Amino acid sequence: MKTIIYAHRGASKLAPENTMPAFQLAYEQNADGIETDIQLTKDHIPVLIHDENVRRTTNGTGFVQDYTFKELQKLDAGSWFSEYYVNTRIISLEDFLCWSKDKKLLLNLELKTNIIAYRNIEKLVYKLLKKYNKLHQTVISSFNPNSIKRMHQIDPNVTTALLTSQRITDLFTYTQKLGATGLHIKYRLLNRAFIDHAASNDLYLACYTINRPARMLRCYKLGIRAIFTDLPHIAIETRELFEQDILE
Ligand code: G3P
Ligand code: CA
Fold it and tell me: Which residues of 107-140 are buried (b: 16+ CB within 10 A; e: fewer)?
């Protein structure tokens, strides 16, 4: 099976991460899917932004959870990246689902609950995915095992994946017990033994964040289920060359 290419925060090397221009570009570049990060506003609206604090990727300061969605939308989430993107806005998960509604794109929604454990985020996200009929195209991931467990309790048919950058003791059985379908791991953890352990525990493997063609190629050769990249057009080109047996 082809390795799935998810545009990490959209095509985030070429446009401001987690914004409409980055998602649109990933779509135009034919990424198989889009990965994005979810935090909750003060009025409990799931929004797409990587950090808990708006400082790095907007012209504002303070925490997402202290803004209402209306207030958050006043911030500029593009000019930090380049002048070309001035006035780009933070969008809600609902805006994103509306945009992706009739598209074949796969989605990976990462619940950013490892620093702030937003109450009910799992239920809110699940409701929206159901409303837009996107559950079958979506993977829910999180570094917070409680979020994975909760999502599995809400609906055991949802595809979920535990994110990890470390190989903790009993990782595979632990992940399985949460009800997760897969593991999304940092690239440096990837080796043959890890792949075999995941397979024998019935867990699929995906790797983040892969921007070098040599690493992409290694993942394709190893048959990893999915990769996350800031450069989806390079990943697609490399996959095509790999499929044509052009690359060694
Ligand atoms: O989902 C893979 C990757 O996005 C996890 O790390 O920090 O980029 O959200 P981060
Ligand atoms: Ca992420």
Answer: bbbbbbbeeeebeebbebbbebbeebebeebbbb
